Amino acid sequence: MYDMQTRKQALALVGQGRSLNSVSKETGISRAAIRAWQTRIEPLVRTGEPCPRCRDAPGPPGDPQAYAYLLGLYLGDGCISAHRRGVYVLRIACSNSWPGLIDACETAMRSLRPDNSVFRVKAQGYVAVACASKHWPCLFPQHGPGKKHERPIALADWQRQIVDAHPWEFIRGLIHSDGCRITNWTTRVIGGERKRYEYPRYFFTNKSEDIRKLFTDALDAVGVAWAQTNAYNLSVARRASVALMDAHVGPKY
């Protein structure tokens, strides 16, 4: 026999998106028992604070800066998948090369859903930062079937207001997902001697025309000059614009 607190704790782990098998191994409780509890007492388990978009008067997320950053990450390297019993899992793929990015992604997720657990799933070459919640489709209405570049992507009015108020956080999220800061080089003849000359620039690459437009609109809003270098690639190379990007975005870390 298990007391009610033990049962609720096991169901809370399942509510985070964990499989019955993993919860069973961690708690020592049989999968059959946990499955039975789901139908008998799961409604008693607290699943977090109400979603700000599901209230009678829908409002913005509690931390709009974190939301703008996570929105950029989601549009670049994120996906939302249905789990079970109305729960969805948001996953952001972050390269192992950038541990600071992984931490920043986790911090943003925790800020938006403080009552839901955020976990990391290791894969070949990257870490998927993930969180289970019934409300990710409310917070990211761009969620839908198929790949993002194969369907229209547009911001809702309330999302547009957040991006307009926090454009740099949105840009930083997009760069951290599908962008980079690199150092190019060329040679120049100075005083009769050919010397190597280095200069930094930013790149952003995404197959979705809509997402690229969201990126360039945000750059235009903050006065950053950009150029399209090929079908999917955008570049920021002018010295003043690179300096602005360095001040507000910087290289991945």
Task: Sum up the structure in keywords.
four-stranded antiparallel sheet, 3 domains, elongated, Endonuclease I-creI, 253 residues, alpha+beta, single chain, 8 strands
Outline the fold blueprint.
Layout: H1 4-15, H2 20-27, H3 31-41, H4 64-77, E1 78-82, E2 88-95, H5 99-112, E3 118-123, E4 126-133, H6 136-139, H7 157-165, H8 167-178, E5 179-190, E6 193-205, H9 209-221, E7 227-228, E8 233-236, H10 239-248
Antiparallel strand pairs: 1-2, 2-4, 3-4, 5-6, 6-8, 7-8
Helix pairs in contact: 1-3, 4-5, 4-8, 7-8, 8-9
Description:
The protein is α+β, with helices and mostly antiparallel strands and 253 residues long. It folds into 3 domains: 4-44; 64-172, Endonuclease I-creI (Roll); 176-248, Roll (Endonuclease I-creI). It is built from 10 helices and 8 strands. The chain has helices spanning 4-15, 20-27, 31-41, 64-77, 99-112, 136-139, 157-165, 167-178, 209-221, 239-248; strands at residues 78-82, 88-95, 118-123, 126-133, 179-190, 193-205, 227-228, 233-236. The protein has a 4-stranded antiparallel beta sheet. Strands 5-6-8-7 form a 4-stranded antiparallel beta sheet. Strand 3 (118-123) and strand 4 form a beta hairpin. Helix 4 packs parallel to helix 8 (167-178).
